[in-house]
Amino acid sequence: MKKLLVALLVLCLVASLSGSSALSAETKPLTIMIGYENHPGEPVDLGCNHWKKLVEERSNGTIKVQLYPSSQLGSKNELIDQMLAGIPVITLADGAFYADRGVPDFGIVFGPYLFDSWDDCWKLTKSDWWKEQCKKLEEKGLKILTANWVYGDRHLLVKKPVRKLADLKGMKVRVPNNTIQIKGFEVLGAVPTPMPLGEVYTALQQGVVDGLENPIPVLYKGKFAEVAKYLVLTGHVKNFTTWICGTKVFNSLTPEQQKILMEAGDAAGAYNNSVYADLEKDCLEKMRASGVEVIEVDLSEFKEAAKKFYELPEFTSKWSPNLYQTVKNAMK
């Protein structure tokens, strides 16, 4: 209820600003909320603090940014619903969520083992194919502000050791609540269990799930290694982050404010990337020191099993013809 009241108050602010004169828009600062599941101290959180600083400096006070880490404003899907309703909130999301929001081709970017390197990711985000998907997403009410943030290679943290693909069979793995990631783990033999990240620690304690998947800094900062002691280096997704807001809010900004928000987002993404590698290494060492066993698996059998994902009829019936090859070509 508290979250809803906050959101409604901010919505009223946006409505008043959009109906005011240009002079009023200059004298009344717009407050934008950035909400995310990540905890303070993670690269994403550090990047958001940098984004806030840059936006407020470059906008000369016309935009104020409030940060809400640790799912304080709700789950990712709840935040997306809020921005579609016109609330000035920004969150991080990816192609898997955009597929569920009416742009099915976008979902492939979160498919397992699609990318061989980070360079593949950045080539794709600069391609004509990517620009086409962004336009389709805007038609659905969502505007991508920045897309150059490394979120990390996603790995498994589980309560029982996984040393080969067969060990994953029947294991309940928490995944974000979207079809792409659910099916991505089904083809590997696991039982994907969608839930907000903020509920996972307790779910691990109570045996509701056997593990979760995320980049190493997220796993460490969320203290999940206190209740799951096996880190399996699957690297099943090279996860780069895109940040979105509602087109209603974005279009209510002046062109200068739009430019500031997006350029500062890219600069914050570069900052996030600069701290990520060192923090990942530090978190991995701390996890080992806390008693976590780090397991390297034969990725070839995981990649072979993942090929089935790109042939699932629930995707191929919605995707453009030959989408997999189209995306691969766009990375060249």
Task: Note the topology.
Layout: H1 2-18, H2 22-27, E1 30-35, H3 43-58, E2 63-68, H4 76-84, E3 89-93, H5 95-100, H6 118-125, H7 128-139, E4 142-158, E5 172-175, H8 179-186, E6 191-194, H9 200-206, E7 211-214, H10 216-221, E8 230-246, H11 247-252, H12 255-289, E9 293-295, H13 299-306, H14 313-316, H15 323-330
Parallel strand pairs: 1-2, 1-3, 5-6, 5-7, 8-9
Antiparallel strand pairs: 3-8, 4-7, 4-8
Helix pairs in contact: 3-12
Number of strands: 9
Count of separate structural domains: 1
CATH architecture: 3-Layer(aba) Sandwich
Q: What is the CATH superfamily?
A: Bacterial extracellular solute-binding protein, family 7
What structural class should be given to the helix and strand makeup? alpha/beta
Q: Distance between the terminal alpha carbons, to the nearest Å?
A: 49 Å
CATH topology: D-Maltodextrin-Binding Protein, domain 2
What value does the Rg take, in angstroms?
20 Å
Low-pLDDT regions: 1-26
Order of helices and strands: HHEHEHEHHHEEHEHEHEHHEHHH
Question: Could you walk me through the main structural features you see in this protein, from its secondary elements to its overall organization?
Answer:
There is one protein chain. The chain is of the alpha/beta class. It has a single domain, classed as Bacterial extracellular solute-binding protein, family 7 (D-Maltodextrin-Binding Protein, domain 2), CATH 3.40.190. It is built from 15 helices and nine strands. The chain has helices at 2-18, 22-27, 43-58, 76-84, 95-100, 118-125, 128-139, 179-186, 200-206, 216-221, 247-252, 255-289, 299-306, 313-316, 323-330; strands at residues 30-35, 63-68, 89-93, 142-158, 172-175, 191-194, 211-214, 230-246, 293-295. Strands 1, 2, 3, 4, 5, 6, 7, 8 and 9 form a nine-stranded mixed beta sheet that branches. β5, α8 and β6 (191-194) form a beta-alpha-beta unit. α3 (43-58) packs antiparallel against α12 (255-289). The N and C termini lie far apart (49 Å).
